[in-house]
Specification:
With about 100 residues, this protein is mainly alpha-helical. Helices cover about 45% and strands about 5% of the residues. It starts with a helix and ends in a 13-residue tail after the last helix.
């Protein structure tokens, strides 16, 4: 799935740069790293530098925190459901001897 998304993004960027075929991007076997084998167009014009999408700490935090919070709410409600139906009820051990 990730390969398809990356390949589609690479093909779209090549078409925007003026290349007609998508054969100039290839996936190196065994390394999972994209490389661009063509640096010029068919007319000899230099291609622009590839666009780098930064994936900073802010973006990662914006994705992780909401899902972590939602997961916490789901687990709390499921634990309450189990306790309500007496499926899992922690026992109070009074070992004050």
């Amino acid at each position: 799935m990730a390969f398809v998304v990356c390949r589609s993004a690479a093909l779209l960027s090549l078409r925007a740069a003026g290349l007609k075929n998508g054969g100039s991007t290839r996936l190196k076997t065994g390394t999972n790293v994209f490389s661009r084998s063509a640096v010029t167009t068919a007319s000899g014009k230099m291609l622009p530098k590839p666009v780098k999408t930064s994936f900073g700490l802010v973006r990662m935090t914006a994705v992780v925190l909401p899902f972590l919070y939602i997961g916490t709410l789901i687990s709390k409600s499921f634990a309450a459901l189990l306790e309500e139906h007496d499926i899992f009820v922690p026992e109070d051990d009074d070992d004050d001897d």
